[in-house]
Hints:
Membrane topology: Multi-pass membrane protein
Order of helices and strands: HHHHHHHHHHHHHH
Number of strands: 0
Low-confidence stretches: 2-22, 69-89, 342-346
Helix content: 55-70%
Structural class: mainly alpha
Pfam family, one: Mito_carr
GO biological process, one term: iron import into the mitochondrion
Shape: globular
Mean pLDDT: 79
Protein name: Mitoferrin-like
Family: Belongs to the mitochondrial carrier (TC 2.A.29) family.
Strand content: under 5%
Largest sheet: none
Number of helices: 14
Amino acid sequence: MTEASSQIPNPDFKTTSTGSHENDGLGFWKFMVAGSIAGMVEHMAMFPVDTLKTRMQMLGASSSCSGAATHWADRAKRGRTLYMVTFSSHHHHQIGNFFTSIMRKEGPLGLYRGIAAMGLGAGPAHAVYFSVYETCKKKLGGNEPGHHPLLHAASGVIATTASDAVLTPMDVVKQRLQLKSSPYNGVKDCVLRMFKEEGVKGFYTSYRTTIVMNAPFTAVHFATYEAMKKVLNEISPENASEERLMVHVMAGGAAGALAGAVTTPLDVVKTRLQCQGVCGADTFRSSSIRLALKQIVAKEGYQALLRGLTPRVLFHAPAAAICWSTYEAMKSFLQHDPEGHPSPQL
């Protein structure tokens, strides 16, 4: 969920004499503001779906973590072939079971446990994400005329590495609070107890996994987004200005869905590492991705790595669309800053 705005001809873009975009005429701090707002809107709007994804991915790690019937884990153990043949119907049925269980036992607020932690982390993390992305894209030449998917992907990977260092601690807190019967009484209690019991290391247990997951996620996301923008704009170039919002929504949605789907197994590992030991969940000897994958597969089978696939796609498709459209709208708004308030240049 991040941005690169280069390929669509846009009357609002400020260009140099060579025709390349100069960061859309915005300064570093304005990219941070636009990115921060976009990130907050995205995560707040889609938080209930994220809660469902977390609960589903913890199914099998502990019967008390997910809050839904454990017969799904038993069925997976009894017959992997049957599970894979009927995976789609089972997966969709699971989503309904989890949603119904949460609404019945915890009420609507159960879907929003941990939202405060995400609110604290998403703003600063997305500010870093978008500003670093725009800076790298400019330095690497991604703003030059033409299509540069590799430059956009590289810029995105650098940006996500920086932003994940900011977001990971609050993401850990958020996921622990999302669990059914979470032992924590809110963000402050979770942070203090984790620091006392696990130290700073506990907040970054999944950082390596997050980077390994988000690097391909971001590469696929940015490359797909930029490619989709270019294709959609070429379909109707004369209406590029009027249809710009719809282009961002469609391109962002497609990019989010594809990137979310292909990185689901690593997201399962990340969730398990972040929530290990909570509510009786399985623990891991180290933060090694390989060992975590091996342990999960040995206990629950390969299908466990696809848990949460549907809600993950359902999260990232609209989330990316919301994030991109909000980010572009904020950039457009900040471009029209009064003349007396020029953008600080990089």
